[in-house]
Each structure stands twice: as structure tokens, then as C-alpha cells.
């Protein structure tokens, strides 16, 4: 039984999620350049998503 | 309009401008007008600003139920921070773990629990400016609170909720139920349980009055009924189990307009006696479904008298305005204004549960783990996909209780199940493999809140396994109701009063025989059960029993003695 494939996606707020890779990229999200099993995708997100604050919140605090 | 005009505390401040002299919050004999509450919160907010609190800063709040609790939560928002509510009744060890996980360095405390944090502030501040502090960088997507829920890996997880999530909920429900300044709400839920968010801000952002229910009153259905009468409460939020105790009483003289059920499955049949007395128009009874991750409530369903006979199950209706519910392979996905930011410090878990929303570009839905079936426009709640259970409205991951059991040196492995008891309530049963561990219950009481401590403990030589080698939960034996190993040797009850008490306790605790010196709370008793047992003792024995009696005199010998002294 083949495991379902996923891709890592990201929205404008810099939030990450996963999406079945046979269903394209959902509207309003971009391909974050990583696909694989669910576990691989989530492990990748665990590495790269280091700040869970949405981009707008972050920008206001820096600015 | 400034960018923070749609933050929770700004809505509150607009009510201060409109009705400064109206009563905002009451607890016992203590009461504050909108202006008084505002000034107190402003002074405390300046103090918090001085300690570095601003947008995205967590502030732990450990204050017993009082007007000060409301002041503390409001002040945290006014300082721009987000509150981390801690229930003083929970074990200090657990509270300290949450403070550490959230990285909070500021604590507002009334001294009820000793906790060590860099800065501790009393909620009652008498000096400093009583106008709101200036805060830059705050907007509706700033964090408002972090609410911890049970976590399956053994560690509670913090849900991050933004101002806009709460404003969305209150905007959607205001028009549906015409909430306004004439409403009187109770704050029945613990501040560490998110129904309190709805109760507190539902009252204060619409100009109403909030009655904080004291702990003592929470435990007594009669006293709670009296409180509803005295304050002419109009909006009541209850778990179905708590409301069930009210239904059994004389409920004349109330002024309820809306009753909202949340927190656990509503059995429509249980409302029959209520409808027989009060009909289904005033008050309106509303069942709501929601989760902390989607900000308290996501759906609503008005319950009618006809439903008692015709509803095919626990009906939860459809989405509140501004929210959406979709079923994906039977699982509830919630979208819209209530979807929160995610789990604090847990990107992996957040990405797994918060998925792209196919209907709203760039937005997310929350995958709930709850299942439902569509029945016309209505939804019927059907259960969970995982090992999360609800007991008396409390959300419990069985995995967290199992991890706590494994934390005892004598326990090699543990499995916890939730099984219905004869009264239809559910109770937790712990199965464990290991050496004898007579202090197992005490061990758990130090790490878990009371509602997560199992009612029964069963030691096994090994767990039954499925062909795949997993624990076969279906094959676990029922607890045999035998008296557990206790430090006290067994002494049979002697006098007729002792025997009568023993019979009532045995029935409630599901234990075959109870020794004269066995502690009620070592046999699986907890405060709700104690309240029910006290009521049964009053009814059957005609004695003056109360929750207080069981807390003070927790054995049959002591209890009987105290009752004999009184008569």
C-alpha cells in the first residue's frame, strides 16, 4: 500500500501547513518546495517554522 | 480608528464611556461598576507595562474566583499582553510547567498558590495612573490569551488565541441572541477553561453584568439556583451535567432568557422535566459545539420540546455566522473567524491540525478530531477519532493520564479508558502493569487536576494485545468493584447509621464494601460525586449532609460521628 504524498505549503502570513500533492496548491498558498510522506513534510515544517507569529504581528513589533 | 480599536479591551472601554456607573462585575458582596473596574485594571496595566509587558508577552494569572480575577485578565490585555489563566485548584507542579512552557516571567497572583516567577504582582493596585497605558504594535491579530488543554503525549498544550477570534464570536452571537446591557451573565467556568472567555467578555463587551460564582456556590446546586434568583441572571452557560443538577430542583422565580450548553454531549431527553415546567421559549435553550482551538463555540442549535422525542441524537446544528463547518470523511473541520493561531511552540502539531481552507484563500481550517453526520441542515455529533474523552465537560487526553501513571516508579506501563458507570456518567479507569503502588492515586493528585485522576485502578500482569501487538482496549477487564489496597485495614461499619452511609457510598463509588476508616476520596470520590452523595444522604437518611461534611469528615466513622453530634 503506497503512502499518500503531501506537499508543504505556506500562506502570506508565513504560516505552514500540508496539502495532498495530487490536489495542486490551494488558493492563497504557495509551494514551500518540499514534498514527501506526511511525516516527512511535518518534520520539515518543525525545522523551518521557527516563529509561529503571523508576519503582520512580527512586522509591527520590529517596525 | 486606531489599529487596536477592535481589540477586546477597547470594546470594554467603549462600554465604560457609555455606562460608567452600571454594575460590571459582582462576586459575593464585592461589586464594581464599569468605571471602577476600568480604573483598577488601568492601574494594574501600568504596573505590568513597567515590568516589560507588551504585545505577545504572556502574563500568568493565578487568582481565585473574585472581582480581582476579572481585573487581572482585563489589565493584561490593556497592557498589550496575553493572559495565561491558571486554576488555583490545580496542582502547583502542573501550573509551574505551564508557566515554563509559555515562558512567562510575570505572574499576577493573590497568593493562593506559591509559584516562582521572576516578577509577581498583586491584582489589587492602589497607586499609579488610572487611565489606560499607551501600547504600540497591538492589533486584532495580537495574542489575547493562551489556554492549555490536555495533551496526548503527557504534556498539556497551549492554544494561542487572538483578539479577533473573540471579537468574531461575540459579534456573531450578539445579533442572534440580542445580547445587551440588560443581560446578567454568570461566570461559572474556571478562567482556565475557555467557556469563561465567552461568559466574561460576553457580559462586559455588551455592557451587561457579570456575576462571578464563588467556588462554594459552584459546588452546591441549591446555592447556585439561589444565586440565579437573587441576581436575576438572564444568560446561563452550563455543561449538560451541571445543568442536570439544576433541573432536579425547584426552578421557579428565575429570569433566564438564554441557556447555552457546551463542553460535552447533550442528551436531549434529559431536558424533558425542564421543558414540562418551563416550555421551550423562555428561556431559549441552545446547544453549542466548539473547541478551544476554534474559540469556544462554532455551531448552535436551538433545542425545542419536540426534540426530546424526535431528535435522533446529540444535535449541534450549523455554523455560527462568520464560521463554517465542513465534514471531511465524517470529521468536523471548522473554518472562519474562530480559527486560532495554533499551538504554542509546536509548529509540527499546528501544521498537522490547521490545514488550508479550500473556501477561503490563504486562511486555515482546524481539523477537530470530532465526527458528525449531516441530518438535513443539522449535524449530529457522533464522537471522537482519537483517545480524547469528555468527563463532566473537561477535555481529557487519555494519553496524558497514561503518561502521568508511567511517571510513578512502580508502574511499568499503563492504559486508561473511559467507561460509563451505572448512572450513565463516564469515569476513568486506569489499567497498569508493575509492582504494587499503594500511593498511585496520591502520586496522580500531585500532577493532575482532580477530574483527570482515575476513579478505579486495576493492576494486571500484562495487557491483552490485538493480533497487531497493540493493547486491545476492548479486551480489558471491567473493574471488579473490589475495595482497593489501602493503607487502612478493613473494619466493617457497625451502627445502623454507619451501615446506611456505607450503602450509599458503595453505590456511588461503585465499590462492593467500604471500611469504616476508608477515605471517600481514596476510593475514587471527587467533589461532584461528593455533592451527589450528600444529596442522597439528605434524601434517604434525613440527615444534614453537605459537601463540606464529606470534605471535613471523609470516612464513614467520622461522618457518622459528626451527624450524631448534630442531631
List the helices and strands and how they pair.
The complex is a heterodimer of chains A (63) and B (567).
Chain A: E1 6-11, E2 16-20, E3 29-36, H1 38-48, H2 55-62
Antiparallel strand pairs in A: 1-2, 1-3
Chain B: H1 8-18, E1 23-27, E2 30-33, H2 34-50, E3 58-62, H3 67-78, E4 82-85, H4 92-102, E5 106-109, E6 119-121, E7 143-149, E8 157-162, H5 163-177, E9 184-187, H6 195-204, E10 209-212, H7 215-218, H8 221-230, E11 235-238, H9 240-247, E12 258-261, H10 272-278, E13 284-289, E14 299-303, H11 307-310, E15 314-315, E16 318-319, E17 323-328, E18 331-336, E19 342-343, H12 347-353, E20 354-356, E21 364-375, E22 378-384, E23 388-391, E24 394-397, H13 398-406, E25 411-420, E26 426-434, H14 440-447, E27 456-459, H15 496-509, H16 527-541, H17 547-552, H18 556-566
Parallel strand pairs in B: 1-10, 3-4, 3-5, 5-6, 9-10, 11-12, 12-13, 26-27
Antiparallel strand pairs in B: 1-2, 7-8, 8-19, 13-14, 14-16, 15-22, 17-18, 18-21, 20-21, 21-22, 23-24, 25-26
Give an overview of the whole structure.
In chain A, a hairpin with a 4-residue loop joins strand 1 (6-11) and strand 2 (16-20). Chain A is elongated. Chain A has 63 residues and is α+β, with helices and mostly antiparallel strands. Helices cover 30% and strands 30% of the residues of chain A. Chain A has one domain: Rubredoxin-like (Alpha-Beta Complex), CATH 3.90.820. Chain A has helices spanning 38-48, 55-62; strands at residues 6-11, 16-20, 29-36. Chain B folds into four domains: 1-163, Rossmann fold (3-Layer(aba) Sandwich), CATH 3.40.50; 220-386, Rossmann fold (3-Layer(aba) Sandwich); 388-475, ANL, C-terminal domain (GMP Synthetase, Chain A, domain 3, 2-Layer Sandwich); 496-566, ACP-like (Non-ribosomal Peptide Synthetase Peptidyl Carrier Protein, Chain A, Orthogonal Bundle), CATH 1.10.1200. Chain B is 32% helix and 24% strand. Chain B has 18 helices and 27 strands. The mean pLDDT of chain B is 92. Classes of the chains: A alpha+beta (63), B alpha/beta (567). The interface between A and B is medium-sized, with 29 and 26 residues.
Amino acid at each position: 500500500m503506497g503512502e499518500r504524498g503531501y506537499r508543504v505549503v505556506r500562506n502570506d502570513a508565513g504560516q505552514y501547513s500540508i496539502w495532498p500533492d495530487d490536489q495542486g496548491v490551494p488558493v492563497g498558498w504557495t509551494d514551500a518546495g518540499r514534498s514527501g510522506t506526511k511525516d516527512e513534510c511535518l518534520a520539515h515544517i518543525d525545522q523551518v517554522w521557527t516563529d509561529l507569529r503571523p508576519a503582520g504581528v512580527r512586522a509591527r513589533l520590529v517596525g | 480608528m486606531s489599529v487596536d480599536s477592535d481589540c477586546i479591551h477597547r470594546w470594554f472601554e467603549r462600554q465604560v464611556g457609555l455606562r460608567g456607573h452600571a454594575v460590571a462585575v459582582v462576586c459575593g458582596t464585592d461589586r464594581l461598576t464599569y468605571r471602577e473596574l476600568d480604573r483598577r485594571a488601568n492601574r494594574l496595566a501600568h504596573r505590568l507595562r513597567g515590568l516589560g509587558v507588551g504585545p505577545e508577552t504572556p502574563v500568568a494569572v493565578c487568582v481565585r474566583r473574585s472581582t480581582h480575577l476579572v481585573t487581572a485578565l482585563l489589565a493584561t490585555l490593556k497592557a498589550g499582553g496575553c493572559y495565561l489563566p491558571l486554576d488555583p485548584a490545580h496542582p502547583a507542579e502542573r501550573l509551574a510547567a505551564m508557566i515554563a512552557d509559555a515562558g512567562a516571567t510575570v505572574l499576577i497572583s493573590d497568593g493562593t498558590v506559591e509559584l516562582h516567577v521572576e516578577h509577581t504582582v498583586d491584582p489589587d493596585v492602589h497607586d499609579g495612573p488610572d487611565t489606560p497605558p499607551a501600547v504600540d504594535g497591538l492589533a486584532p491579530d495580537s495574542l489575547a490569551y493562551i489556554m492549555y488543554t490536555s495533551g496526548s503525549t503527557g504534556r498539556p498544550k497551549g492554544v494561542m488565541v487572538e483578539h479577533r477570534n473573540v471579537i468574531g464570536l461575540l459579534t456573531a452571537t450578539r445579533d442572534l441572541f440580542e445580547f445587551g446591557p440588560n443581560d446578567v451573565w454568570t461566570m461559572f467556568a474556571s478562567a482556565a477553561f475557555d467557556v469563561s472567555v465567552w461568559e466574561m467578555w460576553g457580559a462586559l463587551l455588551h455592557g451587561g453584568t457579570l456575576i462571578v460564582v464563588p467556588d462554594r456556590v459552584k459546588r452546591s446546586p441549591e446555592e447556585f439556583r439561589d444565586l440565579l434568583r437573587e441576581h436575576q441572571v438572564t444568560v446561563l452557560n452550563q455543561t449538560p451535567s451541571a445543568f442536570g443538577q439544576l433541573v432536579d430542583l425547584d426552578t421557579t422565580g428565575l429570569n433566564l432568557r438564554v441557556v447555552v450548553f457546551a463542553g460535552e454531549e447533550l442528551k436531549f431527553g434529559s431536558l424533558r422535566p425542564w421543558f414540562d415546567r418551563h416550555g421551550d421559549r423562555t428561556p431559549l435553550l441552545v446547544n453549542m459545539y466548539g473547541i478551544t482551538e476554534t474559540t469556544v463555540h462554532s455551531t448552535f442549535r436551538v433545542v425545542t420540546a419536540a426534540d426530546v422525542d424526535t431528535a435522533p441524537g446529540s444535535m449541534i446544528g450549523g455554523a455560527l455566522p462568520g464560521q463554517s463547518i465542513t465534514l471531511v470523511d465524517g470529521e468536523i473541520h471548522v473554518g472562519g473567524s474562530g480559527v486560532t493561531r495554533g499551538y504554542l511552540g509546536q509548529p509540527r502539531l499546528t501544521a498537522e491540525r490547521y490545514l488550508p481552507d479550500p473556501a477561503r484563500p490563504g486562511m486555515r481550517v482546524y481539523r477537530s478530531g470530532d465526527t458528525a453526520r449531516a441530518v438535513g441542515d443539522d449535524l449530529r455529533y457522533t464522537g471522537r477519532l482519537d483517545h480524547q474523552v469528555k468527563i463532566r465537560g473537561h477535555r481529557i487526553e487519555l494519553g496524558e493520564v497514561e503518561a502521568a501513571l508511567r511517571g510513578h516508579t512502580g508502574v511499568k506501563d499503563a492504559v486508561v479508558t473511559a467507561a460509563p458507570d451505572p448512572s450513565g456518567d463516564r469515569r476513568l479507569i486506569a489499567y497498569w502493569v508493575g509492582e504494587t503502588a499503594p500511593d498511585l492515586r496520591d502520586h496522580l493528585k500531585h500532577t493532575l487536576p482532580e477530574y483527570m485522576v482515575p476513579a478505579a485502578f486495576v493492576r494486571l500482569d500484562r495487557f491483552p494485545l490485538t493480533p497487531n501487538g497493540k493493547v486491545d482496549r476492548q479486551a480489558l477487564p471491567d473493574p471488579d468493584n473490589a475495595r482497593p489496597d489501602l493503607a487502612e485495614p478493613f473494619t466493617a461499619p457497625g451502627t445502623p447509621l454507619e451501615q446506611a452511609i456505607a450503602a450509599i457510598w458503595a453505590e456511588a463509588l461503585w465499590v462492593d464494601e467500604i471500611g469504616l476508616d476508608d477515605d471517600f476520596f481514596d476510593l475514587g470520590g471527587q467533589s461532584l460525586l461528593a455533592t451527589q452523595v450528600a444529596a442522597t444522604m439528605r434524601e434517604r437518611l434525613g440527615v444534614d449532609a453537605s459537601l463540606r461534611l464529606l470534605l471535613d469528615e471523609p470516612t464513614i466513622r467520622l461522618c457518622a460521628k459528626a451527624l450524631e453530634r448534630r442531631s
